């Protein structure tokens, strides 16, 4: 196969799209990357709050072959969003990815041509023969809108890689009974996505000198509240409306030990159940459950000592280990609880909320507490599934992409010649994206063939059942996360590609050091 003659398209130039392109280039392909933004690579990192930082230390969030600059590589350094953008841009320049990106080009639709949907659905092997390009008769037709024009153009490609992410594009917003929603509010209501996209100067102008209420308890909610409090102080306190607390920590270490060493290595994964683990490992996980409970309690005790969450009623109901497994751990903004103490942040716990003319009503629509506001920011998550469904022309593919899980978190068993990278995340997502990109590049190069559709669906369903147990929390009903089984996942990917999973030298290193460090 002449890789240079195969047309590969990648949608998105965020972290997942960049590494997908890099690894496709390494296998001899010449992919085209369509990026809707016209101002550079970096994805959501280019459109975020001024105060946003990485949620993991720099040493744990990096591509395997591209270290951070020396000034941002310390163990306790959480790089700023602009430093992340520059790191991703430098990675793209280093590996020749930038030349492949077509900026300002938005993919509006993707249509598979070659065989009818019904025939593709009846295949016993993915793409007909288990190979990336099938028998060569199928192709994708991409409708692309180019910069500075309303006109569109059709691009034909042999393989499509979607790297559109989960945290942009389609906002998840609550629904309300009649006369209880934003329509009755006399102020301004916007989603945190729109607030982030405004630009730093416009966002500051929106909130300065205003009574702001932020709904949500995730990272974007904490960051937005912190920005509002810094802008307005105690004169116009920012109200944070949340259903429950969230584990927001002030560092990546517990009594000097990295969280990765406690929860993200082979030893830690022996304490949890894993997809396809077998009887022996299942019994071992049961026996080691007290060890996981102990590690979780040690972490909880440490952070409760460090952060006054108990004093302000923000102790999470979920265990720390559960938060790690579900990718619901965040880094607390600087001086957050100092601003709570000084009165520039007001924390309001509520099971529900609705709107009134001058703000919000908490819990009960008639007698509940009222929160006056001029601006309400809904930090209520995103609908990553809708971004995927909106991409397809085929009604069958629209239904299939969300109705059934992805094999190896990358390939849908019933949708040919297409992969998704970055939909499933991890605590150190960039490494997971890189592993997915390597796997897809090997598939493109013919290094392995996929099993039967039946086997793919069975494996994907088993993984989905496992991940579903950790898929809950505020905002969009949760998200698939490999937090508790990332090493197990990496091992499967390595075996597919023909590599030895245990790559570290020495038993202690292989057991105690995270595979993502």
Automatic annotation (TrEMBL):
Keywords: FAD, Flavoprotein, Monooxygenase, NADP, Oxidoreductase. Its EC number is 1.-.-.-. One of its GO terms (molecular function) is NADP binding. InterPro entries: FAD/NAD-bd_sf, Flavin_mOase, Flavin_mOase-like, FMO-like. Its cofactor is FAD. Pfam families: FMO-like. Belongs to the FMO family. This is Flavin-containing monooxygenase. It comes from Oryza sativa subsp. japonica.
């Amino acid at each position: 196969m002449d890789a240079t003659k195969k047309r590969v398209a990648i949608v998105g130039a965020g972290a997942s799209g960049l590494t997908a392109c890099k690894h496709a280039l390494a296998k001899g392909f010449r992919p085209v990357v369509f990026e809707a933004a016209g101002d550079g690579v970096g994805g959501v990192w280019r459109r975020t709050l001024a105060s946003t930082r990485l949620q993991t230390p720099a040493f744990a969030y990096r591509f395997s072959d591209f270290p951070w600059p020396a000034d941002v590589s310390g163990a306790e350094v959480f790089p700023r969003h602009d430093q992340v953008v520059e790191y991703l841009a430098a990675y793209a320049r280093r590996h020749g990815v930038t030349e492949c990106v077509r900026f300002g080009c938005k993919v509006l639709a993707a249509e598979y041509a070659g065989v009818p949907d019904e025939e593709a659905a009846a295949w016993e092997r993915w793409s007909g023969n288990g190979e990336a390009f099938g028998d060569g008769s199928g192709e994708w037709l991409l409708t692309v809108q180019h910069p500075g024009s309303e006109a569109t153009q059709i691009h034909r490609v042999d393989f499509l890689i979607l790297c559109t992410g989960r945290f942009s594009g389609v906002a998840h917003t609550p629904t309300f009974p009649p006369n209880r929603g934003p329509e009755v509010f006399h102020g301004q209501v916007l989603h945190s996505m729109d607030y982030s996209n405004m630009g730093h100067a416009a966002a500051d102008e929106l909130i300065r000198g205003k009574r702001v209420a932020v709904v949500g308890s995730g990272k974007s909610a904490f960051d937005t509240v912190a920005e509002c409090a810094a802008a307005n102080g105690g004169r116009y306190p920012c109200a944070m409306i949340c259903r429950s607390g969230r584990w927001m920590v002030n560092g990546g270490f517990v009594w000097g030990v990295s969280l990765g060493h406690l929860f993200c290595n082979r030893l830690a994964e022996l304490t949890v159940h894993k997809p396809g683990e077998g009887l022996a490992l299942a019994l071992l996980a049961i026996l080691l459950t007290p060890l996981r409970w102990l590690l979780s309690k040690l972490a909880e005790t440490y952070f409760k000592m460090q952060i006054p969450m108990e004093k302000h009623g923000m102790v999470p109901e979920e265990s720390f280990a559960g938060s790690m497994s579900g990718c619901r751990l965040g880094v607390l903004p600087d001086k957050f609880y100092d601003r709570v103490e000084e009165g520039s942040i007001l924390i309001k716990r509520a099971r529900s909320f609705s709107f009134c003319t001058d703000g919000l009503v908490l819990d009960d629509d008639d007698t509940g507490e009222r929160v006056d506001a001029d601006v309400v920011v809904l930090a209520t998550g995103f609908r990553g599934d809708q971004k995927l469904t909106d991409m397809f022309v085929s009604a069958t593919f629209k239904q299939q992409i969300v109705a059934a899980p992805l094999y190896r978190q990358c390939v849908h068993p019933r949708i040919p010649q297409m992969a998704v990278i970055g939909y499933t995340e991890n605590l150190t997502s960039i490494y997971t994206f890189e592993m997915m990109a390597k796997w897809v590049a090997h598939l493109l190069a013919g290094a392995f063939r996929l099993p039967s559709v039946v086997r793919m669906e069975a494996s994907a369903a088993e993984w989905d059942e496992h991940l579903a147990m950790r898929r809950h929390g505020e905002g969009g009903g949760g998200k698939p996360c490999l937090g508790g089984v990332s090493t197990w996942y990496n091992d499967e990917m390595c075996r597919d590609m023909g590599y030895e999973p245990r790559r570290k030298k020495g038993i202690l290193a292989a057991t105690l050091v995270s595979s993502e460090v």
